[in-house]
Amino acid sequence: MQQMIKPWRHVFKLDPDRLISDEDLQSVCLSGSDAILIGGSTGVTYENTVDLLTRVRRYKLPCALEVSHLEAVVPGFDLYMIPMVLNSPEPAWILGHHRQAIERYGSFIPWERLLTEGYIVLNDDSSVARLTSAETELTAEAAAAYAQIADKLMKLPIVYLEYSGRFGDMDTVQTVRENVEYSQLFYGGGITGEAEATQAAALCDTVVVGNIIYRDIQQALRTVAAVKMTKPLTYL
Ligand code: 1GP
């Protein structure tokens, strides 16, 4: 499964709790983006997740679920991305919900389709930060230390720098980049156009674009080419 995400440079993240027209969904799915990631912090239900998956399935790009609500785990996705919020002080967001999920779903879990994301939440003014009480005030070195926990201690397939809703501090992202050797580095947060997409794409393996889809679809679509045309810098 890790092989499947290797070529992903650009990903659109769709929120089951937000409305998207068929026309916009078609544009997103035919944009040349590498995958659709379905997920959100609030208002995610089994019903709205099934509904969105069914609509995305009309197109051929891979579709992954970022699991955040136990009740909203829907079968039929290509991949299940499992966040562990490394900078949450609450073990529930690192291990607790995961334990409950395994207790509840046990033998139904398609382990071969799961990929764990070492999440580092960096925007204090985001739903995910509020939900997980993440300690977002991190120096670049502290963020890089968390990233190395994921990369070198836990050997997770993905390190996800999550600035959801705000464009991140590229110096911090660069420091993290310089320290991640094995994990695929995902960046998400506040990309509203080509300039931000290009900056993030230079430093990260995979760029996730969310919110702007719902605010300005044309701008969202432009991020695909911007990311694809940017060669990632190599540090290691
Ligand atoms: C959110 O990382 C994604 O989980 C993308 O962030 O919605 O700010 O683009 P935005």
Automatic annotation (TrEMBL):
- What EC number(s) is this enzyme filed under? 2.5.1.n9
Please, which domain of life does this record's source organism belong to? Bacteria
For this UniProt entry, the molecular function terms from Gene Ontology, in alphabetical order, are:
heptaprenylglyceryl phosphate synthase activity; magnesium ion binding
* Pathway info: Membrane lipid metabolism; glycerophospholipid metabolism
Q: Please list the residues that bind Mg(2+).
A: 15, 41
For this protein, the record's Pfam families field holds: PcrB
- UniProt keyword annotations, A-Z: Lipid biosynthesis, Lipid metabolism, Magnesium, Metal-binding, Phospholipid biosynthesis, Phospholipid metabolism, Transferase
InterPro entries registered for this protein in UniProt:
GGGP/HepGP_synthase_I, GGGP/HepGP_synthase_sf, GGGP_HepGP_synthase
Which reaction is recorded as catalysed by this protein?
A: sn-glycerol 1-phosphate + all-trans-heptaprenyl diphosphate = 3-heptaprenyl-sn-glycero-1-phosphate + diphosphate
Gene Ontology terms describing biological process: glycerophospholipid biosynthetic process
Q: Where along this sequence does the record place binding of sn-glycerol 1-phosphate?
A: 13, 160-165, 190, 210-211
Its needed co-factors are: Mg(2+)
Q: What does this protein do?
A: Prenyltransferase that catalyzes in vivo the transfer of the heptaprenyl moiety of heptaprenyl pyrophosphate (HepPP; 35 carbon atoms) to the C3 hydroxyl of sn-glycerol-1-phosphate (G1P), producing heptaprenylglyceryl phosphate (HepGP). This reaction is an ether-bond-formation step in the biosynthesis of archaea-type G1P-based membrane lipids found in Bacillales.
- Which HAMAP family does the UniProt entry name for this protein? GGGP_HepGP_synthase (MF_00112)
Subunit organization = Homodimer.
Family the UniProt entry places it in: Belongs to the GGGP/HepGP synthase family. Group I subfamily.
- Tell me the protein's name: Heptaprenylglyceryl phosphate synthase
**Organism, as annotated:** Paenibacillus wynnii
